[in-house]
């Protein structure tokens, strides 16, 4: 019996990887007026805990999601699937970041109580209105996004962040930003900035900022590709230790 299970595990893991890949969006929204969006994801193993999503609310609004379940591997992948399923099922709350984050945190706390474990997760959830450029968002423990004014090349962090989800009850802080033409939003997980070189140095946000500033004229997809290539060069053959995800949004 045990030998049969060992033989089947690689096939099971391959199937899990296929199922996880199927959960992630096949492509970024192409019909959202005034915006160009791109994304890239690279798991450190067959499956992982990073995720992103684009939830269409109506013809003018989309919810942008990027998250990172603490840890990686099968356990993180199962939690990631649970979170994505919850977000996609809450059609009545998806347009209200504070409400959906509050509900998701309650779900994770309940799951932790029933399993006798803690299921922490960082999440950035934003509702973007295409005609106006108005964006309401909640950042629950996630790395603060970079906001770039492409014409001037100026870069700064957008908003602050609350506690991780799944740890304790929270009252999410909802923030707002109005995007103008030429602004770029860069969302990422800490697997990118925590990537280590053979000398043990970390990639860090400062290097990401420098790279983004040097690719201000590139398309969102070209920037996403450039970030992944630069992180890979920085690692210089070192083993990838965490999942990596980036989402780039341009207001045009």
Mind explaining what this structure looks like?
This protein has 252 residues and is α+β, with helices and mostly antiparallel strands. It has one domain (33-251): Phosphatase 2c, domain 1. Helices cover 35% and strands 26% of the residues. The protein contains six helices and ten strands; from the N terminus they run αβββααββββββαααβ. The strands form two sheets. The chain has a five-stranded antiparallel sheet with strand order 1-10-9-6-7. The longest helix has 22 residues, at 2-23.
Question: Could you list some keywords that capture this structure?
Answer:
10 strands, disordered N terminus, 6 helices, 5-stranded antiparallel sheet, 252 residues, Phosphatase 2c, domain 1, single chain, 26% strand, alpha+beta
Judging from the principal axes of the Cα atoms, what is the shape? Answer: globular
Distance between the termini: 59 Å
Estimate percent helicity.
Answer: 25-40%
Share in β-strands:
25-35%
Order of helices and strands: HEEEHHEEEEEEHHHE
Structural class: alpha+beta
What can be said about the biggest beta sheet?
5 strands, antiparallel
Q: Let me know the CATH homologous superfamily.
A: PPM-type phosphatase domain
What is the topology, as strand order, of the major beta sheet?
A: 1-10-9-6-7
**Number of spatially distinct domains:** 1
What is the average per-residue confidence, as pLDDT, rounded to a whole number? 93
Task: Give the CATH level 1 class.
Answer: Alpha Beta
Calculate Rg over CA atoms: 18 Å
Q: Tally the helices: what do you get?
A: 6
Residue runs with pLDDT of under 50 for 5 or more positions: 1-8
Number of strands: 10
**CATH architecture annotation:** 4-Layer Sandwich
The CATH topology corresponds to: Phosphatase 2c, domain 1
């Amino acid at each position: 019996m045990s030998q049969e299970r060992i033989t089947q595990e690689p096939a099971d893991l391959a199937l899990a990887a296929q199922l996880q890949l199927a959960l992630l969006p096949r492509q970024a929204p192409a019909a959202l007026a005034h915006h160009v969006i791109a994304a890239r994801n690279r798991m450190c193993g067959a499956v992982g805990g990073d995720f992103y999503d684009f939830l269409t609310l109506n013809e003018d609004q989309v919810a942008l999601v990027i998250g990172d379940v603490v840890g990686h591997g099968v356990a993180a992948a199962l939690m990631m699937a649970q979170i994505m399923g919850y977000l996609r099922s809450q059609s009545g709350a998806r347009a209200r970041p504070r409400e959906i984050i509050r509900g998701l945190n309650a779900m994770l706390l309940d799951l932790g109580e029933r399993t006798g474990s803690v299921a922490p997760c960082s999440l950035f959830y934003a509702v973007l209105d295409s005609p106006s450029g108005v964006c309401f968002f909640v950042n629950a423990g996630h790395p603060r996004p970079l906001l770039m004014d492409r014409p001037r090349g100026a870069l700064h962090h957008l908003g602050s962040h609350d506690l991780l989800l799944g740890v304790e009850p929270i009252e999410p802080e909802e923030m707002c930003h109005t995007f103008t033409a030429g602004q770029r939003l860069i969302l990422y997980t800490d697997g990118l900035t925590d990537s280590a070189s053979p000398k043990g140095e970390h990639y860090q946000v400062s290097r990401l900022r420098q790279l983004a500033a040097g690719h201000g004229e590139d398309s969102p997809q070209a920037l996403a590709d450039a970030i992944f290539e630069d992180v890979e060069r920085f690692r210089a053959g070192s083993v990838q230790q965490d999942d990596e995800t980036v989402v780039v949004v341009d207001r045009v």
